[in-house]
Fold these 4 entries.
Entry 1:
Amino acid sequence: MAKIFCIANQKGGVGKTTTTVNLAAGLAKVGQRVLVVDLDPQGNATMGSGVDKRALPLSVYDVLLETATIAEARQHSEKAGYDVLGANRELAGAEVELVELEHREQRLKAAIAAADADYDFVLIDCPPSLSMLTLNGLCSAHGVVVPMQCEYFALEGLSDLVNTIKQVHANLNPDLQIIGLLRVMFDPRITLQQQVSDQLKAHFGDKVFDTVIPRNVRLAEAPSYGMPGVVFDANAKGAQAFVEFAKEMVRRVGGMR
Ligand code: ADP
Ligand code: MG
């Protein structure tokens, strides 16, 4: 059975997409079969995996509206080493169209269930909001990985997400749990980042992943070459950190049912 995780944080620019594609590439590197589901109409995870969002015959939009299955709509990225269920602008319309439909928050879950046997991991890149799209992600998943920068307002934003996850857990998806908080774009020379990191550990204990992702320009450059940083420059510090993180994920969730 595939382990299904949302990469979520309602803030934009915190490293969700970078985490999704590099965790996926890291998992692929250690032999896991991976599907990335892009739930953001910006399509950054699609492009960053080396799949052209403007040339998608079918996308996650068609899957949510049940006019295509994942098996029909996915693309394989040779470069990245995993499959992609892509997204583009069209997905922005799904928000409105889904409201009219039955089981509107469970549509992705049903679609993933039909492709479950093909994968060890399914990673869902969520948009920066707590919208119907994110809700579809949270209803599909066993857990949430929360990338965050160790900055002053980071903890404040976290409580909204934690509350949403609690509500989804209580009402829609009893499987859902926070797998962990991932410190990203970390710079140990900045005292404030060290302090926030210490606060996070004091507050959330072992829900904070051991692996820390450093700020690393190679990770930021990789999307313009259409590949995850882990593939683009395997020797860069950021790439190595994501491969470590992939191994930590395999260890942590290995015993999950
Ligand atoms: P989100 O998906 O949450 O909006 P992104 O993953 O797109 O965030 O990251 C926002 C920006 O920060 C991007 O330009 C990305 O390349 C850059 N970035 C993300 N992680 C790192 C990192 N560890 N080091 C340097 N730049 C990063
Ligand atoms: Mg993103």
Note: The CA atoms of residues 245 and 257 lie 20 Å apart.
Entry 2:
Amino acid sequence: MTTHAATLITGLAELVSNDPELGPGPLGLMRDAALVVQDGTIAWVGPAGAAPPADERVDVGGRAVLPGFVDSHAHLVFAGERSAEFEARMSGVPYDGGGIASTVRATRDAGDELLRSQLQRVVAEMRAQGTTTVEVKSGYGLTVADEARALRLAREVTVETTFLGAHVVPPEYAGRSDEYVALVTGPMLAACAPHARWIDVFCEPASPHAFDGPASRAVLEAGRAAGLGLRVHGNQLGPGPGAQLAVELGAASVDHCTFLSDADVDALASGQTVATLLPGVEFSTRQPYPDARRLLDAGVTVALATDCNPGTCFSSSMPLCVALAVREMGMTPVEAVLAATRGGAAALRRDDIGHLGVGARAEMAVLDAPSYRYLAYRPGVPLARTLEVA
Ligand code: NIG
Ligand code: FE
């Protein structure tokens, strides 16, 4: 392995290490800290006064540094837009997943170059706001060729790719959802699995377009047999089997969690599945926010993600999610920042990101502010960006 120059990072007003061995609280906060980065990993972290010599030096000028945001849920391979649907919702039309079909139409009609440029534009937007890892789902192709294409494109920007052929039943299969599930679990899975790390399903009996418990189970079990990790869209529009199914099958994460019963919370607390909350969705659909406090108090690991997509949340902003989680969901600033970094990493079953201890990947965000608190304290202000170290 080639060894590159070591870079010493100084001038930190605050370091959020997310490593409780390095400093107080779950954020492992350090003041007057310095970091040494070498070969893309954190080689040393400690008090600035004790920093070892390095080849290069970067002074962040009195800013806070934190692990880059881990956005563990996004749908970025699509064409078209649905601002009129958003406007209708703001006049009282509820979201039921029916609008997904219009994005499917536009995506099928689009060439690779259009999809790629849209995807790259949103990923660049994310990086400009401090996100260093993003998960990208398929789910707007819904044919064998279009789903495989979406995942090939997603692989160009991330290793965290998710096959979501079971997003909705496409119009050509209306009334034949069993046949569509057979396609998803058969030829579509075979074509998509080589390009995917994960499989996901929109498990939502409250939507006429999505999948019930038995169909969701069939999709997840087929994905697992094909070697994919499991993720679930669950309990977004109403109560349903998604959360408990996710725990039972050992899914890495169940996402949305807006409508949870006590039994769902108990199941999450006793299992290994992360509850990923997507507050931009409630903001953009006028649904009630999920009760993060109840999950945290029960001991559930919580992640925050954007769900960036043209329907329920066309925002790529993890700082917005942090601010909403604090203001609307009962999370403290510490809990929200942890959920947007280490929580997202847990939802992707990654321990090399989401913290800045020695050996972690040097994927960092820097704030134009002295403290992580400013993410919720100064909402809507572009404070965060990724910290690039050569
Ligand atoms: O996570 N709920 C299902 N899928 C997306 C929305 C997709 C869309 O409306 O285009 C979500 O909210
Ligand atoms: Fe989603």
Note: The radius of gyration is 21 Å.
Entry 3:
Amino acid sequence: MRVQIAIIGAGPAGLLLGQLLHGAGISAVIIEQRSQEYVLGRIRAGVLEQGTVELMDIAGVGGRMHREGLVHDGTELCFKGERHRIDFHKLVGKTVMIYGQTELTRDLMDARRALGLPTVYEAANVAVHDFDTAHPRVTYEKDGLAHEVQCDFIAGCDGFHGVCRASVPTDALHTYERVYPFGWLGILSDTPPVSDELIYVNHERGFALCSQRSTTRSRYYVQCPLDDKVENWSDERFWDELRLRLDREAAERLVTGPSIEKSIAPLRSFVAEPLRFGRLLLAGDAGHIVPPTGAKGLNLAASDVRFLWQALEDHYRGNQTALEHYSERCLARIWKAERFSWWMTSLLHRFPDNGDFGRKIQEAELEYLVHSEAASTSLAENYVGLPFGE
Ligand code: FAS
Ligand code: PHB
């Protein structure tokens, strides 16, 4: 097979890039190691920045998102048993969209299928070759048969554990990493959300987050030890622990029910530099990871894709500037999101080594944050997504 772009990975980054390239008349194939059902079964992000919403509209797949997504004007911070609202719309004139990553991925998969665009699921032994030449190749096996794709560029959208970044010579890559000493235990339930907007909780027992997927489906998280096991958590134990971390009003309002998904995710900050190696370009989790506290992971993937789509479109029009600056443009935005995600995580979680002093500093910062318009505005402009030009 020969295409202009070989995209590795059918997560949000790969699918969104494929849709945008199609709109620009650029041929691409997506090669994914898992089945569609497996990809859709992963329960992940829930908050879309306006930039991501706009990109879905440009890609022509925003219809259901606008019909079923929930627009939120703000969020709440809960500490010392009290909730404080941060009003995004009043402070920075922007909002966020609550629409699960699963639904966004489903919309992109459905659109790709309807257009009959080439997508290989359950590809085995995917490998990338010769990306330091003008003739990169991808090989894979499907149903026991070997296949090869010749292309102009390879888009590495294969996530943190993918093959693309792993194929780059280690001396060509510099990585930065911080692993956090706790995880998030998440539960999905068909119960009405406890509040109209999200609630981020700083509590002596640990962080908690009340999120949602719709008016009838909720997503909750509690901070748990890194070595904890999901088998240790019955639904009842989860609900009891969540209640202990909520303010009184939310604890009384909480509607519990059977979990339809329950899992523990580790938290890390990670960045690989640069993001381009000849004809291989990394986008999304393949190049960086953020702790989900700032709701940035999916949105960063979308902003990388925006830059990559523009760079590839310009390349085929004979202008190489955006391609030559792809990595630095992405990284300028990535590092600001990494900082915000690290800051939100540091502010809201219990760190084993922080001690009483660390706890008092967190409380002082939260008090300052909710009583200073300047501090609240800073949180708001980062949470809704910084402008692309910056
Ligand atoms: P993805 O990892 O989504 O997709 C990569 C794709 O590449 C996968 O389908 C994978 O199967 C495929 N792949 C991997 N190796 C391959 C190979 N060798 N060959 C072919 N295909 C290969 N973000 C938030 O904003 N909020 C959250 O609450 C949140 N929660 C998360 C919870 C968990 C457990 C995880 C892991 C991440 C979470 N994230 C969250 C971040 C997440 O949403 C990512 O940012 C988002 O999925 C990034 O999308 P992609 O870059 O497309 O990577
Ligand atoms: C989610 O709904 O899964 C979610 C929302 C906001 C976050 C993290 C996760 O910061």
Note: The chain has a mean pLDDT of 97.
Entry 4:
Amino acid sequence: MIHSVALGADHGGYELKEAVKKHLEERGVAVTDFGTHSAASVDYPDMAVPPCEAVLRGEAEAALLFCGTGVGISMAANKIRGIRACCCSDVFSARYTRLHNDANALCMGGRVVGPGLACELVDAFLDAEFEGGRHAARVAKLTEIEEKY
Ligand code: RB5
């Protein structure tokens, strides 16, 4: 189970981040919020980096990232060596990206999912543990690709 998270959002994900943050605090998860802190326009690549760096430094176990679709901020996060980010709008994928991909970032779209579903996605993601085994060899291949390119 994941007990600490770093949050990041652009303006398209700001409101959803705030809703998820409240849920996380009620759940007792340690939260570091890297913004954005208003609905003013900001660029999603800029907002992906600080929470992902916090994960790489070991200050949070995972990043929860939000933009309008969840897609742009997931693309930015996946450019960062050591980050495995998944953009999800269904609970099955949010759970299995932890079980099989050892994902350390979950991305959601504020214009795609509502707050109720987002909290279910987050719970599924936080509660699932990487299964290792044959999946560890596959995740190692992701790292090989990252190192090659
Ligand atoms: C911002 O308008 C929007 O493009 C951004 O939040 C995101 O959806 C990009 O993928």
Note: The chain has one domain: 4-148.
